[in-house]
Amino acid sequence: MRVAWESDGGVWHLAFRLDAEDSITGLCSDGQALKLATNSMRVELPRAPREMHPDLLALAAWTVVAPWTRRRIVFDRPVSPEFADAIETGWGIQAGPVGGSPRSGSRLAISYSGGADSAAVAAILPDAPFVHFQRVPHPRVPNRWTHYRADVLAGLAEQTGRELTVVRSDLEFTLAEPRPGYPEHHAVAAGALLMAGELDLGALAFGYELGSRWLGGGRYLHRHTPDNLMWSQHGAWGQAFAAAGLHIVLPVGGVSEAVTMRLALGSPVREQVRWCLRGTDGPCGTCGKCLYKELIHAAVERRPLRTSITLDRGVARKWQQPPPYGGQEMIEYGCARVPGIEETVFAKAAAFLGATEASTAWLERCYPPAVEEVPEPWRKPIHDFMATEIGFMSEDEARRVETWGTT
Ligand SMILES: [Zn+2]
Known about the structure:
It is built from 14 helices and 13 strands. The protein is an alpha/beta fold.
């Protein structure tokens, strides 16, 4: 794989070329098979940065091309030996050319999507600036996803009043299959990486919560994942970001979506929280994401489910099947707490799971190792927030995390 960046003011264009051993089908770090659509993309920054460290450009490119790279990657300018080592150690991919020294930065920014999890991060870190990724169309790929309202989400991020950098990119259209999206989940950070020098960023906080970090995530694994390749500090991506001087921080990595929902609903940005990508004046209320989040929302507010989704809808189908489910811990939590669940599309799932308030109480507290793995300069405010506002899991509760998927 060979990558080259060209800049035109604040617009950065990436072009990449596959080597003979590379293939247009590859795997995301989460195991999803991906097919390449096109070999170019751009990132539009709000202004031309004064400085641009080569490791930041290299890592931004790597978040896009990693799935299709088999043996080596050649960047268009030398990367630090530390960064090249991180790629070789993490992926077994030879990286170069090598030269120069690594960078560092001091501030933390939040990769803010506008959903409940990133709103919870915003509540924990009230002074941190936001960087928001906005999808824009690609000049060479038809946009068949016009219902995806990235403009609405960017507008909501503006309305929060927080210091905000919006970066626009068409990088999701490098993916032909399964659909446009981030080639690696970390590609959402491409704009933050290119702005990291300008903003003096040393860390980027993501809204990945307990399920994504420690329980194997939604559609993927369903087991305890201390060595999570994507989100652990010592994993391949954690080490690559650290080498580029932009540490991954997961402020809500130790708490469930019940906690992030509660924090989001009680936060100053609650009016701007939006987890649905389809609605304009509000969440669409008809997609699978809306149904899932409504279950959590209703559980947190201890009220009946408010939805027009009926059993005959496709998005209700998986809840008629036996587990395991993606995000199963939250299905258990919701089924145990929503009044009248047996009258809803979750009735069968609730019967399969047999969860109770007692059996899901561990999902209301923080898993201590998640805070311990936050890099030291940024750990204390997160620790103190968890200690005073949420509380830490007991050893028995922590064991629920560590035996997840095995009992
Ligand atoms: Zn929706």
